[in-house]
Design brief:
globular, 3 domains, three-stranded antiparallel sheet, 9% strand, mainly alpha, single chain, Beta-clip-like, Serine Threonine Protein Phosphatase 5, Tetratricopeptide repeat, binds S-adenosylmethionine, 21 helices, 694 residues
């Protein structure tokens, strides 16, 4: 149940893997394609006896040719960085007009839920707000207490083993943090007292570079095999092998992106305590351009470490996983499932790439770098600004006469079950894809979408400082967007519904009943001040509102994300858990037993209608249901959640990760409760006075 505590944190998810938020990067950046990617020489291939590139007859390259893609796909030698790839995967280089540089390809057929790659990130840093709650070595959450570093008094660890394991990094970092904090205190307008996670992560990368130097295991592998050149040594160091987009930025040094890079570069130099740029040489950085390169590599190739329930915790770098290219409709996903049966504590945080779809031999593994619930234009903008490329996946390059993408759709005005593309300012003409009925009042739709977008931005900005206002905005706008016909997955309805659901859950009124037990102290602490006592009816209303919002969010996600996507699985798990919360004021009344007069009802008189009975006379049943039907719905939702989590967080030993395992246990408990209820009803029926025999 404690996973609810992660909801508030999850609202902070940028869902882009990048450190630099989309809005803070260059507005003008253009893709540099694959110019910066170091290509292993032909000699390497021959020496290693790898198959000749052009002999590979991959389905993936056929697929690209069918689409008119002129790219050629060449396997790369499994040397250096690539040597640690499992034998089931390959690194290949896709060049040409539509090439996307190096990428990871599957050599075999894989099914949804298969773990494709498990790896501990090279470096990781928790974000500032999590330093006291999570171990800085293994990223485990605090259970009882964590040990604080006596030097910097900032980082915390599970135990002395975790502290020792992190010491090779923290040795340098500890002093740097102390110096940073001291100088920040001295300068009133100076930097924040604690360096951010991006700065600490970059610091760790540089200390690692300094330590490994020419001793990098990959360098030694190269060195043993043949005489090496300095340039190869440089390439062999993991971080240097990552893609950089420095040249795109340098085209416009005044762009916001360039400025962010420059600021980060300055902050890192300050963090390392360097006096002159020459001192960077011992970290393998010889000039300013190389420093910007490092920052660019970091920005493009960084992952967000998340809890098993997808709440963001910090940043990490894994050069191998960073080789995976992007698609807005990915066939794989990167997660940190903390599947206890599978992972050892010393391997945590264990980063896993999991198949979301069936993957055929020679197919490229593709993950999403950004939140794919956004519409095409927003996705393209973020990808261009942060990653400097134009996505050409099938969602970005829709074929002519395609059916509308549910991210940008409204229901048919004739309610035939079909959908129409969301009208735009440029093209307000839109028809149902099924019955061809035109949408008449497109202005009302356009206005609602515009107001919805504004409210979303405001609600996002206010969610931590003024959550009540944020709840008001989201709850007000959702029905407006629904009334003009937006489908649950459409933008901004889905984004508002998700935000609304997470805010309502975080601010559920603590009830006298077990709501208090279900929601963690963090959730309760999120409510400012002493909670006012609310009536059971108000508590029930708040719980039901949260369930309705979570249902809307979950159905929107199901319209656009692949079955088994972890975001879908976690949303369903949250809904299932909410449905299991004891109702503070249930509206359920036992349905009357047909052949017996209800107690206290005079024979012949009709009983006063119960809320349930009143509702049952209406067409749509009340939602959420109350009493045992609610418990039954909770059970079904948890079972569905478990099926999806078994894909998104890995099947087999992973068992759907930590959340999948918790959901399974909850489903078992609910099933038992349902059995008790059924037995109770059966006993009550058996105990009824039997009608006298005639
Ligand atoms: C994390 S790296 C992925 C590995 C990269 N291809 C390489 O060779 O190192 C991200 C960069 O790869 C390229 N990339 C990733 N996905 C792409 C796509 N779908 N289309 C074009 N370029 C892509 C972009 O240059 C992007 O900035």
């Amino acid at each position: 149940m404690s996973d609810f505590s992660s909801l508030k944190k999850r609202r902070k998810v940028k869902e882009t893997r990048s450190f630099v938020a989309a809005g803070t990067t260059s507005q003008t950046g253009t893709s540099t394609g694959t110019r910066d990617v170091p290509l292993p020489s032909k000699l390497d291939h021959d020496e290693e006896g790898e198959p000749n590139a052009m002999e590979v007859d991959s389905d993936a390259s056929h697929e690209k040719s069918r689409q008119g893609n002129t790219s050629a796909i060449t396997p790369l030698s499994r040397d250096g960085l690539y040597a640690s790839l499992p034998p089931t995967l390959d690194v290949r280089m896709s060049t040409g007009e539509l090439g996307n540089g190096r990428g990871i390809y599957s050599k075999y057929y894989r099914k949804p839920g298969d773990v494709l790659l498990s790896i501990k990130p090279h470096v990781a840093a928790l974000s500032n707000e999590h330093l006291e709650e999570y171990c800085s070595n293994c990223c485990a959450p605090k259970t009882t207490s964590l040990r604080r570093c006596t030097g910097c008094k900032l980082l915390h660890y599970c135990d002395s083993k975790c502290q020792t394991n992190d010491w090779s990094f923290h040795r340098h970092e500890c002093l740097a943090i102390q110096k940073w904090s001291a100088s920040a205190s001295a300068e009133s307008s100076g930097p924040a007292h604690v360096p951010g996670d991006a700065i600490r992560c970059l610091g760790r990368i540089l200390w690692r570079k300094q330590k490994l130097g020419h001793e990098s295991i990959w360098v030694r592998r190269f060195g043993l095999q043949r005489k090496i050149h300095n340039s190869e040594l440089f390439q062999a160091r993991e971080i240097d092998s990552l893609q950089s987009h420095r040249t795109s930025l340098s085209k416009d040094p005044n762009s916001q992106g360039s400025q962010v890079y420059t600021q980060l570069a300055h902050a890192v130099v300050r963090f390392l305590g360097l006096k002159s740029p020459e001192e960077l040489a011992e970290y393998g950085i010889n000039n300013a351009a190389e420093l910007v390169d490092l920052v660019s590599r970091f920005t493009i190739n960084t992952f967000t470490i998340s809890t098993p329930a997808l709440a963001p915790l910090g940043a990490c770098v894994s050069p191998l996983v960073a080789l995976i290219n992007h698609s807005c409709d990915p066939n794989a996903v990167v997660v940190f499932p903390r599947a206890s049966a599978h992972s050892k504590k010393e391997d945590e945080p264990l980063m896993q790439v999991i198949a979301l779809k069936h993957i055929t031999p020679d197919e490229e593994i593709l993950t999403a770098y950004i939140d794919t619930t956004f519409p095409r234009e927003n996705r393209q903008k973020i990808l261009q600004e942060t990653y400097h490329f134009t996505c050409r996946c099938h969602l970005c390059v829709l074929p002519p006469n395609h059916s509308p993408d549910m991210r940008e759709a409204i229901w048919c005005p004739n309610k035939c079950g079909g959908v129409c593309a969301l009208p735009t300012e440029e093209n307000s003409l839109t028809r149902c894809n099924r019955c061809k009925a035109p949408v008449k009042d497109t202005d009302a739709v356009l206005d609602a979408v515009r107001v919805g977008q504004e409210a979303l931005h405001k609600a996002e900005a206010l969610q931590f400082t003024n959550p009540k206002k944020s709840i008001q905005l989201t709850t007000k706008l959702v029905p407006i967007l629904v009334s003009v016909g937006l489908v649950p997955a459409a933008y901004p309805l889905l984004a508002l519904s998700r935000l609304c659901a997470s805010l309502l859950i975080s601010h559920l009124l603590p009830a006298d009943s077990n709501v208090e037990e279900v929601f963690s102290p963090e959730i309760q602490a999120a409510q400012h001040g002493t909670p006012t006592k609310h009536t059971p009816e108000e508590q029930q209303e708040a719980l039901d509102d949260a369930i309705r919002a979570a249902t809307r969010a979950s159905s929107g996600l199901s319209q656009i994300l692949t079955e088994g996507h972890p975001v879908r699985g976690v949303a369903l798990a949250e809904l299932g858990k909410l449905l299991t919360v004891d109702e503070p004021h249930p509206t359920y009344i036992e349905p009357p037993i047909k052949d017996a007069s209800p107690a206290g009802t005079p024979a012949g008189a009709s009983p006063s209608p119960s809320p349930l009975m009143m509702h049952s006379q209406l067409k749509a049943p009340p939602y959420p249901p109350s009493g045992p039907p609610r418990l039954k719905l909770a059970y079904e939702t948890l079972v569905r959640a478990r099926t999806e989590l078994m894909i998104g967080f890995g099947s087999g030993k992973n068992e759907g990760g930590q959340v999948g395992q918790q959901v399974r246990q909850l489903a078992v408990d609910v099933e038992k409760e349902l059995m008790v209820w059924k037995t109770g009803v059966k006993n009550a029926l058996d105990d009824r006075p039997k009608p006298a025999k005639k």
